[in-house]
Amino acid sequence: MQILKQDINRRILDVARQEFSHRGFTKASMRDIT
């Protein structure tokens, strides 16, 4: 099954929003987002 690029983009943005709201912008980690 192929994963759509749009789905991957949406998941990354969702996780990034959670990370930024939990840790704040300056302490957010790209490692945790990806």
TrEMBL record:
SUPFAM superfamilies: Homeodomain-like (SSF46689). Keywords: DNA-binding. InterPro entries: Homeodomain-like_sf, HTH_TetR. GO terms for molecular function: DNA binding. It comes from the Bacteria. Residues 12-33 form the HTH tetR-type domain. The keyword DNA-binding applies. This is HTH tetR-type domain-containing protein. It comes from Duncaniella muris.
